[in-house]
């Protein structure tokens, strides 16, 4: 594994006392980032751990020295150094003055994807998951180079924060022959993703940090057009995506399904279960557990189905050993402890409570409601929070403060259980009561979607 670094270019932008110390530091090649905060000692973070660089306290002048030598900070408070992969992020005070800097070292490391070279050759779309700082951007930069140079494919990189190809109009050589499309604002990333397909005829599109519902939807649109996708997102494992509503489209979407008594008995589950709605946008998922240990889901569709059912699935664990030789082994992925308990206790569940007014015919009542104008009375839930959810998801219902005008009551389970008068009133007027465990956007959104759709 070789490395191409532009560390000296970053050091030239630092005050002399920091540059001098780092230039001769024995752990220079293991440097991850430099933290410079007003009124504190400067700190360097290496793979081996953090270390103070000087006894000198950082002053306004030191911060100004650096900020004047880098490019203009974006709306996301990020800047770069031309022809390098380094990223400089700032912290501001209430007056928008810069009081801290994080200088993250960018490296183009060749050979990082030797573990998954065969997956690239398959032509399937690949999603890479990992915690911040684990090296996802470095991996997709190398993927871009291999696909464009060695496999001779037409590759377009959607570079939102200029971390993949550097902060310059001329992309860094680390991406090979791949082309780079810059994104002026983070909110426009999904537009640029679609534009890349429509205007430039790529065979492969590479996206870093898919994080919003619109970006997930754009990724699905691109996948349906037959273009190979390589993307990254934050998360430790596939279960995190199931818990993350904006990103569930990446794995096919999750919905509640009501089974018949016979089918529920055959499966040994509850009648209301979670199932995948559609085909995933990505066929392969890679979990970056460690720099040298990766878990591979060769069939995302199969893995998601098994996770939702709490059954066994086979995954690969690929590892680079200390002697630099690769190894591969298979392991069972089994999460019954997660899902069997989650479906009755976690935030994923939407409780449909059973009081006097709610009986075994509740599903029939729910179906009948779909043909009516839904009028919802909120109990112990924030009116503004529910209104925000309705607006965001485009759900058309009416909220009322008069329970007698409602045909549905939604409230916190604990509060409804304590209010006998409310339950009796709902029964008298034939009003269905639904409850959520917590007053969270996710639970309310899922419940409303369950009721309306």
UniProtKB/TrEMBL annotation:
One of its GO terms (molecular function) is ATP binding. InterPro entries: AAA+_ATPase, P-loop_NTPase, PTPase_dom, Spore_III_AA_AAA+_ATPase. Residues 122-261 form the AAA+ ATPase domain. The keyword Glycosyltransferase does not apply. Keywords: ATP-binding, Chloroplast, Nucleotide-binding, Plastid. It comes from the Eukaryota. SMART domains: AAA. This is AAA+ ATPase domain-containing protein.
